């Protein structure tokens, strides 16, 4: 049986393929230069979108046609599920046999909360290294975004494609002006308001930040002293625009959109930020921080400038989802030949997940009942699809979708007229032109099958048939599952960049230190300067050695202590066996089984006995009684077996619950003990390093050749009599570390893997708390001792004391930055560790 392996690492954006000879060999240019599997779309694309194509290529290149192809998979659970869906299809099931490797990656959505915890711990350090440059501020924004739930959605396309109507449908309210002529002249950044009775619009006018707030009481402009033609036009439009919150915001946006600066009129910014409650019939997007960007048509005259504004607006964001809105008759248009390049070069957007929305599908000349194979091939070969196809192509009637959320209630007459014409077509199965637009969607086969099932199960038929439900589902899938891989990957990349930035700051501080030293040296005689320098340098070096050695020392403890506390397969099986046996014994399961077996055996024995008795007595009439007795015995035996099986199932269910309770109790014991051990081990380390530092300073003073005896004795007394390091302060309580262990049922990793990973992560978090507190106490202790020695070593006048303090402060700034770098590297290793392969 031929055998191949897929190794998918979505964190590194790589997919590799292997074939089995005498051993696993990676498929590469050297051994298979013509392999289609080496195409960039497979090796760097997102595996779930290409899974079916990859399996087809593997069958074509490595299947022998006479036996099934064995495919071994290494990767996260989410992708394993997708591959199983692909290979369980009627066409592929007879051709392949799947096997899961023992090596696996955690799902990004499972580890992202832990990575965010690392971010929370490191953010004060990172913010403290900020130098105010645009590059640094950009990196900090990205750092915050990588640890947040923000999902940017960028809607692009031709001006006539109905982008604004599509966004209105998504948010469930008539917010943006729409029409067949270009109506979006600016970029609107739209977020969901937390309150149903509050909305706001923000923009820059005359180089001043303006915020317009809408409530039930009216409209308020901040700052209140702001004046200008644009604000007058907004106020007039709102007064004439209607009474509801949405109508007033829509009127204000219309005024902003149509505003044109006169010769001496201040400029109004191209970026307008809108925060508005989504429609009451819109659950989509709740619980997620989605930011939607509505852009002017890509074929408008000012497109180049708007691309610049959009790039600036999304600066610092990441994991953005590009949605290209077009119409069916424009799929093969060359109007947007450079659109793909613009999207692919925008760091905030990930073109691997691009969605194509074919809007106004109600007016499109699409074939009744769905696409033929030839139709699909034509669509897939159009200009737009060739350049942008990734996640899928969705056919949508935005007005029908919006009407599904507003129950057909529209303020816009055009919307109302179109909806009334379309409603029966998408809602009434008996209508002559009844249409399910989701039947036309094109996407990878296993994703399409799932999308159709979910659309058919949607309880809002109009929403599902309008195609909008499937788009929202695709966005949700990206937001909840796919984007997390990028966030994890970027977190590691950003930490690496920030470590480089810290190194650069260290070099700058080193140069400043040399300058300060030179100034002080010029004013001290050689012997005193040398002694001071030696004291400070020894203090710094012993501190750095202690900090450098701390993590390896604690890691070695963790390697032994945490590993010894981990849950093993043998231990889990032993618990399961003992608990199950106890529970079955308590519930009398074995007795019931023996009783059932006895009754089953009695059926045959009783039948034979009665038959023999009837034969011996020649009781022909008794045969009917034999049949009746047999039926009664058989029924009793079946009932006893059913009772036995139910008792066994009940015992096993209770045993499963008891086993989980046992695991949780063990977890509580393990985490409590390991927290105490971590704190105790850390104390021992720093106390030992304090005495090592004390001895090093004592040796320096004792061996100094240019120190008079009186001063030497005084310095030795300072060192010997100096207080011991105290680490008895109470550490902050981190409540979530002691939360009960709750296995993630959606994560298919074995219980022991989840247990050990959770235990390791919580201990790691506690270690970071202990590390910060103990290291700070050690530094304070060593600094106090060094200062006392320095002042005892030389007699400093006020001017020299000032210079001395400058040198010491610079030295300690460098020391602190080195400590930050160590902590950043530790965080980087923790983040990388979450994304490494686990033995399943």
UniProtKB/TrEMBL annotation:
<protein>
    <submittedName>
        <fullName>Dynamin family protein</fullName>
    </submittedName>
</protein>
<feature type="domain" description="Dynamin N-terminal">
    <location>
        <begin position="153"/>
        <end position="359"/>
    </location>
</feature>
<dbReference type="InterPro" id="IPR027417">
    <property type="entry name" value="P-loop_NTPase"/>
</dbReference>
<dbReference type="InterPro" id="IPR045063">
    <property type="entry name" value="Dynamin_N"/>
</dbReference>
<dbReference type="Pfam" id="PF00350">
    <property type="entry name" value="Dynamin_N"/>
</dbReference>
<keyword id="KW-0547">Nucleotide-binding</keyword>
<dbReference type="InterPro" id="IPR027094">
    <property type="entry name" value="Mitofusin_fam"/>
</dbReference>
<keyword id="KW-0342">GTP-binding</keyword>
<keyword id="KW-0378">Hydrolase</keyword>
<keyword id="KW-0472">Membrane</keyword>
